[in-house]
Amino acid sequence: MATDPVCGMFVEAGPEALALTRDGRTYYFCSQTCRRSFAEPEHERVRLLRRLAVAWPLSVVIVVLTYGLTFPHSSLVVAILASVVQFYPGWVFYRGTYDAIRNRNANMDVLIAVGTTTAFLYSLAVVLLPGHLAPATYFDASALIITLIMTGNYIEHLTRVRAGSALRRLDELLPEHAEVVREGVILSIPPSEIRPGDRMKVLPGGRFAADGVVRSGRTSTDESLLTGEPLPVPKAPGDSVLAGAINGEGAVEVEATGVGLDTFVAQVGQLLTDAEMSRVPLQRTADRIAAVFVPLVLALALASAVAWYALGGAGLTITLLIFVSVAITACPCAFGIATPAAIVVGTGRSAEAGVLFRGEDAIEQAARVDVVLTDKTGTLTRGSPVLAEVCPRSGVTVEHVLSLAAAVEAGSTHPYARAVLDAARTRGLAVPRSADVTVDPGRGVRGTVDGVVVEVARPGTDASSAAGLGPLEGDLRRLTFEGSSVAVVTENGGVIAVIAFRDPIAAEVPEALRALAEDGIQVVMVTGDHPLAAQRVAGELGIREVHAEMTPVQKIELLHQFQSQGHVVAYVGDGINDAPALAGADLGIAIGTGAAVAREAGKVVLVRSDFRGVALALRIARRTVAKVRGNLAWAIGYNAVLLPIAMGALVPVFGLSMYEVLPVAGALAMGLSSTTVVLNSLSLRWVSVARKVPQAPTRATPSH
To answer: CA torsion 663→667→670→672, rounded to 10°?
Structure first.
């Protein structure tokens, strides 16, 4: 059995079923209306609006002629107007009923068509056969029922369109044509015809049609709709770009590397689609109810009508209205869309922030997490060290130390070398030329600058030991104790300075940790780094529990230890080095950027390296599951309360005359029921990691 993505009703996924294939995935629908609503949401909105433009004025006239303004043969005029409403706006329900019968799966349209047709045909018989039946007609009921339900459908359609806006915006990101250079000729072709290796020319303001690598030119790109990054991202030759991103101020030439379904935007769309169709286990009971709901309601409607006619003294007219009331008041759609409505909004909101859920159980697992194990480097920190401090020997300037160190580091790609060069450039220093530069991996770099032998090396190596640190030994001990990575700079064998490197904490991490604490989620640092470096970062962030110098095997053992204590554990890592822990956790959260991120090991993927995404993912998951529970509670409560009323529970209080207004009231309630489910879910769009209650920051001493 498949599930209609629009109304949530069960559909037999056979060859005769109404189906639509999009992006390699087949969807099944209970009716043409649902299929059109999914395939052409804007056209369906216009069709609904056109029908409402007929239904509302005619329904108002029918009510006025029925209860206020009467004249000879006015009942015949009302019958004609009601016929228009019944068979033009109301035709969609007959078509839906036909589809349901053909697919052997009863849907909401069956209840509406049966209920309104019963009231309409009875009223028509009263007009055409005067004297044979009670004179009361219920054209107003049949017309208003159709009008009110279609109004509810229209409101639900608008809210659903808004809920799924993230996925539709992804579909609209690619340009209609791309400028591709082949054999020296510039061709304008659709993105679907781009091949890997093609060179694309992208002008300022244009969109990239495929994932690729910049080969010439410099620019910046707007990737906000893809990654949630609000600021322009600088791009130079060698940097990657994403399909759908907007080019900034410079013209660039890009070599295509990912096209079609291999682009990042296509992978994100697939993840969103998978999440949209996922069903939390709580929904399975509701699915079983929805599958038998329509036949059950028709049986209850018939049983109630017969019982009141045979045992309660109801006349034929009231018996008819009892049947109509029960059929119209029931709302199986509320069961069907309880999960999709919340999940579509929740995953859309998370996708806008660069957070993607993978797998059917990802959202539910994320909602249960109470412990987060997180790596340090590149997760809590920026992952790129900076030169934090320079401690020169007496009589030596910081500028002199930096110029010599930068000279020998100029040819190195080591992160510490880049940190030294960045520090020199920031101070505006001229970097002299170096010669005979040699790199000793794990030890340092040596070279000659203006005839002087300069070395930047780890402390404790032969050169630094021979020269002796002297007064700088205290600085080295202090910096090491503070958790910095330390190197010494020597000039002709003599130590002239101690320099310290630190991996700074990412700016967004404190806000993310505060949000996790607000939600009652414990954060534990698990890192392979030195204990002093780990404790320094943990102390600044207020993380109480720290495990340093951990091997991948030890990380798995710690993870299992938490799980054995009954915790639901999320592990946050870069998705490559921490793949075993990501796979072993109840919820793996992979942090990274670029097209490969959608293929990482985590059940949650953060498109950009922003730790706030962890807090947002868990918060959205909790709120989404809570909304699903709330929607199901509403669906159960609505039907549990109103169906007995429609069947006559309040007749001892109000008498059988209440059925003169109950069909219309039931239609209004039914229309509002499914709309309420969607509107309730829409509040997920405003979930964020913003502070809920101002509170003073806490600082704790980390343990090891």
So the answer is: -140
